[in-house]
Amino acid sequence: MPCLYITTNVNLDHLDTDPIFSEATSAVSSIIGKPKQFVMVVLKGSVPISFEGNKEAAAYAEIVSMGGINREVKKKLIATLGTILQDRISVPRTRFFLKVFDTTVFRNASKL
């Protein structure tokens, strides 16, 4: 089950976040190749974040998946999720950081 956790310093209280959840779920599902019903998205706003020494709109996200992650997938996730955040909550793509973690990497490494 892929889990995408997005944290931003943008106040989301008065925004319709449904499109973010929907678009992020679809993106993760199609890019990683997992069914939508197994994708979890967590979105948290109003978190103090400083990036490049200032507190302008920024976002940090982590995605954890059991397989389906490679270099090309990482690039697509960063580009697509960055665009969603830019379009929906005005976080510039240059102020978005994504940490990607594939849990199967360590399982396979332990078999060596």
UniProtKB/TrEMBL annotation:
It comes from the Eukaryota. Pfam families: MIF (PF01187). One of its GO terms (cellular component) is extracellular space. Coiled coil: none annotated. GO terms for molecular function: phenylpyruvate tautomerase activity. Belongs to the MIF family. PANTHER family: D-DOPACHROME DECARBOXYLASE, LS1-LIKE PROTEIN. This is Macrophage migration inhibitory factor.
